Amino acid sequence: MRKTLSILSILLILSCENKTTEIRYYPTDRNFSVETKEIIGLDTTQLNFREITNKVGTFDKDYGKLVVEFDDGKIKKRVTPYVYDNGLIKSKNILRIKSDSILIDNKYSINELKRILKRHYLNKDKVPYYPDSPKNGLVEITINTNKTGKELKKVLSKLTQVFDEIKEEVNDTIELRIYFDYLRQIPPPPPPPK
Hints:
Elements: H1 2-17, E1 22-26, E2 38-41, H2 49-55, E3 66-72, E4 75-79, E5 94-97, E6 101-102, E7 108-109, H3 113-122, E8 138-141, H4 149-170, E9 178-180
Helix pairs in contact: 3-4
């Protein structure tokens, strides 16, 4: 009986150690209240990237009500994504990322993310086609519209891990603002009148 209780106690302790111990928000400077948010768990959602992106509110209406959530080791990460709206954003402030590449300069492999992301946030007027200030830095994720939440999680997990490393190294108040975007099909123009 004692051996059984000891084994059960050990198993309980081990299972508790595998639980998430911390919640991180991206960006961190937003207020977060579970009652006012729609949380989409990327591990369990049936939505594809297009459907998730279409649920993100515009700045004028419902911005910040959608949060995507995923477990990254012992850390639960919650991202409040943006979508493009009526605001004017300079293209040099946006670092565009796909599943396997970074679309700046002549393209880089996603394996170069740390170096490029660091340059993106810490440019400070050195390279004219990168942001002037860390406050202006944005990251855009564009993946195939039919990709699942789990595939979006892979990209977000890599991005947030690298961002957290950089933030710790530079000990600065940089914020990770993530835009979701997909290539929208523009309907062809109507045929000319006869």
